[in-house]
Write a structure and sequence with these properties.
CATH class: Mainly Beta
Strand order of the largest sheet: 1-2-3-4-7-6-5-8-9
Largest sheet: 9 strands, antiparallel
Number of domains: 1
Number of strands: 9
Radius of gyration: 14 Å
Distance between the termini: 23 Å
CATH superfamily: Immunoglobulins
Length: about 140
């Protein structure tokens, strides 16, 4: 619950400052997960297990690179797995190395179609990659 509040606070502060998350770009499904480029920032997310499980923790690995292909190592990253009208699982990802961030999403307890969102705050700008139609088993 604290992580959800923190994520909402970050997004509210960004909005209050006149910044809205950049969400442009197309989604690409890869063999390793999902990838989206938002304003030059490449956001790649891998869920493990994939598909995510409704009754167990899911590990998320997010790899971030800038428009020059350099790893982003100083971002703040939050990940969310949610379904309409259901409880969400929100986690703050920790930077491990070379632009790779990891987080553990707690079980949502709900099977079916979910959305997975990566929120990045980097260089005073919010970025958001939303991946829809994630099947949770």
């Amino acid at each position: 619950m604290m992580l959800l509040a923190l994520t909402l606070l970050i997004m509210a502060l960004a909005t209050a400052c006149g910044a809205t998350p950049s969400t442009g770009g197309s989604i690409t499904s890869t063999s390793k997960g999902y990838m989206k480029i938002v304003d030059g920032v490449q956001i790649q997310a891998v869920l493990n297990p994939n598909p995510p499980q409704a009754s167990q923790d899911d590990t998320v690995e997010v790899t971030l690179t800038d428009d020059k292909g350099q790893p982003i190592t100083d971002g703040r990253v939050a990940v969310t797995l949610s379904a309409a009208g259901m409880s969400s699982s929100v986690a703050t990802a920790q930077h491990k190395a070379n632009g790779v961030y990891t987080a553990i999403l707690k079980p949502t307890g709900h099977k079916g179609t979910h959305s997975f969102t990566v929120d990045l705050q980097w260089q005073n700008k919010p970025y958001q990659a939303k991946f829809d139609d994630i099947s949770v088993q």
